[in-house]
Amino acid sequence: MFQLSVLIIPAIACEGQCIVGITHAFVGNYTTPVHNVFIEAANKISHHILHSRSSPTAYKLMEPLRSSYQNNAYNAMEKAIFPSYFHGKCQVNGADPVGCPNPDCPVVCGTPGSLVHFYAVLQQIAFNVTASSLLELCKPSSSAYQAFQTAILHELRTESPSRPSPTRLWNRRITRPDLRVALEKRRKNGEGVSGGDIKARLKSVCQSMVKDLTSQCRGSGRLSKCSWEQEMKVSSRNNPIQSLSNKTLQAFILSFP
Fold first, then answer.
1. Mean pLDDT across the chain, nearest whole number?
2. Are 203 and 152 within 8 A, CB to CB?
3. I need a labelling partner for 238 at 20 to 30 A (CA). Which of 42, 50, 106, 190 fits?
4. Can you tell me the distance from the alpha carbon of 185 to that of 180, in angstroms, rounded to the nearest whole number?
5. pLDDT (mean) for 155-176
6. Which 3 state secondary structure label does DSSP give 95?
7. Is 107 left (phi over 0), alpha (psi -120 to 50) or beta?
């Protein structure tokens, strides 16, 4: 009976707690997929760049990227969902169409009923903005990426003497002092003589995170693992925030007036 009473609460638009709750829900939902994407990226860096370092080390070195994502995820998600797509009243010619504002509004507007009706669009927006946020991290001009790149290059320069990098093994075969100096300079700039340019490899790994996110979300169908449609429509916003593995989410779209 409680849910029925919620469904008939009139709404003008998704505002205040509605915007905050639904935005937090999608950001929270993507916590595990994004975490797995960073884990996969760390594995690639460990195996292909930091040949003598473990994946946990690589994951730690990605802290600037992870922190930047976490700091910007909410604002990016909110802007993409509400001002950019779902906004305004649902009235047509001064009257609310059938199903508007709740529970199932076939007009794109800023009401919970519209979010329910166009949930497929909503879930695609949430995925797109998450993917864009990850791609934004890979811009060489961003301070987060520069800090990440610097950390990786520093790790390469402090390679353990007992397990030298392929570049250092190559350098040992060079007898001319001028060539050794030139190669050492290239190494410090992240340009390996074996395995290609380290900076290019880092950029490639970073950009592959969007593909990895797609793999995390695809499942048996398009975004089937990043839909959460059932949970978003049946979970109560009064439930405590728990991990995604418990299938208990923060927001129930139609519980917001």
1. 78
2. no
3. 106
4. 9
5. 54
6. strand
7. beta
Burial annotation 135-148 (CB, 10 A radius, 16+ → b, else e): eebbeeeeebbebb
Residue 213, pLDDT > 60, answer yes
Angle at 130 between CA 116 and CA 111, to 5 degrees: 25
CA 3 – CA 17 distance, rounded (Å): 18
**Residue pointed to by tokens 């978003």:** 232
Chain centroid to Cα 254, Å, comes to: 26
DSSP state of 178: H
Q: How far is CA 104 from CA 10, 13, 124, in A?
A: 12, 14, 19
Average pLDDT over residues 18-30: 93
Q: Which residues contact 44 (CB under 8 A, 6 or more apart)?
A: 205, 208
Query: Is 191 strand, coil or helix?
Result: strand
Following DSSP, what letter does each residue of 67-87 receive, concatenated?
A: HHHHHHHHHHHHHHHTTTTS-
Is pTM beyond 0.85 here?
no
- Residue 133 identity: S
CA distance 61 to 55: 10
